[in-house]
Write a structure and sequence with these properties.
This protein is mostly beta strands and 85 residues long. Helices cover 5% and strands 51% of the residues. The protein has one domain.
Amino acid sequence: MTDQRTHVEEGVVIEYNGKYWGTVYEDGQYHEDGWVELEKAGIHDPRFLTKPEHATYNGSHYIKELQKGRLVAIKRIIQITDELE
């Protein structure tokens, strides 16, 4: 017997030169953002992220880097399958 569940995330990602804005490094004490593969990109709510630089706070050192990017609509679908015998 197979049980399937589907999780859908919709929103926007920030894209620049085939890379996407997301977490490069995180260890619980330190966090660094940058351009990553799509699988690691953060999906944002388009109601609140209308410009790439809205992904950070005013005065952030990431603003100039984010302004290079563009917003791209995305739908991520994750299928969870439990195979039961």
